[in-house]
Amino acid sequence: MTLRRDVAVLEPDLRRKQCLRCGNEFGCAQGEPGCWCESIVLSRETLAELRTLADDCLCPACLSGFAERGNGGRTGSTWAKAIPHAAVRARGVPPVWGVCALVFLTGSLLLALGTGPVAIGPAAIARSALTHLPWVRVHRLGALEDAILWQVRAPRVVLAALVGGMLAIAGSAYQGVFRNPLADPYLLGVAAGAGLGATIAIAYAPPGSRAGELLPLSAFVGAILGVGGAYLLGRSVGAARTSSTLILAGVTVAAFMTAAQTFVQQQHAQTLMSVYSWLLGGFGSADWHDVALVFPYIAVSTAVLLLHQRVLDVLSLGDEEAGSLGIDIRRVRLLIVLAATVGTAAAVSVSGLIGFVGIIVPHTIRLLVSTSYRAVVPLSLLAGAGFLVLADVIARTALAPAELPIGVVTAFFGAPFFALVLRSTRTVPG
Amino acid sequence: MSRAVAVEVQELTVTLGRSQVVREVTATIHRGEWVALIGPNGAGKTTTLRALAGLVSFAGQVLLDGRAVVSSSRRQIARRVALLPQNPQSPPELTVAEYVLLGRTPHIGYLATETRADRLAAERAIARLALRPFAERTLGSLSGGELQRAVLARALAQEAPILLLDEPTSALDLGRQQQALELVDALRRDDRLTVIAAMHDLGLAGQYADRLLLLDRGRLVAQGPAHEVLSEERIATHYNADVEIVHRNGDVFVLPRREVRPCAR
After folding, report:
1. Per mean pLDDT, which range of A236-245, B26-35, B89-98 is the poorest?
2. Are residues A245 and A170 in the same domain?
């Protein structure tokens, strides 16, 4: 009998457990005599604190960490101080995907700058970019090539990147704030409003004036009025509480504005061609002036949306729970919709209506990377910019010297790609 | 007894649409108390909880630690009250760690991100509910009982002194129900929380709560300890149910009865 007890003391029955602090597996004799934990001496205060924080055992490595500090004469060692810095954190953008998105964007920019009737290599582009910096002297491109690169291609490429990033980040924000996977930046009447504004500018511009200057302003105002009308209509029927009423208000306003737009267009049949080509979107006439025009709006809007990543994750718990966590749903929804709308309206005013980007880019990131808005929002910005730059390359080279409307390209190449992503992943996040 | 008052409800009336869902409910709940809201379906239990959390507009007065809900901001309320809804939304791709961190929202500046203090609070909540092995797992991969613990951890990370639970055990099996309620009770004692829970199961409500508030059609019809509130006549009147009440070892058991009908054949 004595012998059997001694054997039991020498080899206690170890149970596999997972450490509550680090999560590693270890063997535990459940406090029986002979358990390894008897060899670790803890101060009484440390032991008391550990007992309030954890109701099961820790692994040898974690437990001895407390003992060493306790024995070092510093009794201030607490659970909190001993927790590794990386203990609990939100994942955010996984570094691999962050690098992938940056490489994709840089690659598209270089490809787009180098592609055209005059081919320019990436090295030449880099060198030419350096010569435009003060105090740098390297080999220059020829004057003609330099002009092609910096006065023709660069503004177009930069504008495509700005618009693509804006549409994608606005789409991701709309999907988050309405908790609706089909939401895109045009959901609340941006498209219909901008369309009406652009048509009015084209139809009623006095013959002497340049419609090209009035058009962006008119489209921008139309887009803001469209969403503003939808928001006011939604609020007047109590939509501030439920997002679906707001969406219905958007549909109503959009239908009305589209009808008005068609009416104006039919009245001025000669405008049909230019209205149609504007509606399909494109960067054919982009210059630095356009870039300067929209950059402030897009920069502010993007910054506001980037700052809302965490709030968008809270909203994914639903209005009720986000409310009980201290979020003022009405104010947050207004702020995000406002930021996304101003940016989208600015983008639309210089590029026309480019569909699909705001839906497929955020969803591709959800399917490939993560559904957390801390990943979706910043990666949408980068990937959307790269995607539209590439689409624009195809739009101007596929039928060169003619140009395809870019909306055709985004749908024609975007749809099969998205179908592929959809098929190769198992779950479709909402 | 001069215990501090945690929640003071005066003449609380909630009107949804055209119907009064809660009518003139007056009650006082002390710090550290566990109060169960009981009553048949549609009695106004959930709506009462939502009113206490300031999520629905109401007439009357609700004071949390002496401060009126009506004049507090959403964030101020969220620092005093954590509400666990009956069917919490659990985005399946979120990890337990990320989910628990969301509980820190009332303590994080509107556009800021979590500080080290927030991450430590979340870590404590995770350790307290023995969720460390699950911290990096996604919510979609958890079982019902594990998910319930994650939701509790989120509420704990909120560090609000008042815990509102709406049917906390409705999705759990018998053993998990007991475990979850024991856990809530342990948290209440250790962290000196006040617990107000809408509960379906009268037996469990009687076992865990210090006091029961019986609601029927929006009115508070009885309150007090289980052995006073739970009587055969009351349950017949308000639940329209035929039950037998059994007192044993200080516990109250509610046993449904069924008349034995003569066999058809």
Report:
1. A236-245
2. yes
CB neighbours of residue A103 within 10 Å: 12
Same domain? A292 vs A382 = yes
Query: Quick check: B122 contacting A, CB < 8 Å?
Result: yes
- Claim to verify: residue A47 and residue A112 sit in the same structural domain: no
pLDDT at A137: 62
Which of left, alpha, beta for B26 (phi over 0: left; psi -120 to 50: alpha)? Answer: beta
Q: Note if the bond before A401 is cis, omega within 30 degrees.
A: yes
Cβ of A325 within 8 Å of Cβ of B158? The answer is yes
Read off the pLDDT of residues B108-125 as tens digits, 9 standing for 90 and up.
988 888 888 888 889 888
Q: Model confidence over A141-159: pLDDT tens digits?
A: 677 888 888 888 899 999 9
State phi, psi for A143 to the nearest 5 degrees.
Answer: -55, -40
Question: A235 lies in a domain?
Answer: yes
Residues in Cβ contact with A390 at an 8 Å cutoff, skipping those fewer than 6 apart: A108, A111, A112
Q: In which residue are the tokens 């820790």 written? A: A58
Task: Count how many pairs of residues, chain A against chain B, have C-beta atoms within 8 Å.
Answer: 121
Query: Chain A contact for B130, CB < 8 A?
Result: yes
Report the domain count for chain A: 2
Complex-level ipTM: 0.87
Task: Answer with the residue of higher pLDDT: A329 or A48.
Answer: A329
- In contact, A341 and A188? CB cutoff 8 Å: yes
Contact B120 A56 (CB under 8 A): no
Which H helix or E strand runs over A233? helix A211-236
Q: Kindly list the distances between the CA atom of residue A404 and the CA atoms of B172, B179, B234, in Å, as whole numbers in the listed order.
A: 58, 64, 77
pLDDT, position A37: 75
The residue in chain A having the minimum alpha-carbon distance to the alpha carbon of residue B119 is A88
- Tell me whether A327 touches chain B (CB under 8 Å): yes
- For residue A377, name the pLDDT band (cuts at 50, 70, 90): very high
Asked if the model's pLDDT at residue A404 lies above 60, the reply is yes
Q: Do A23 and B103 touch (CB under 8 A)?
A: no
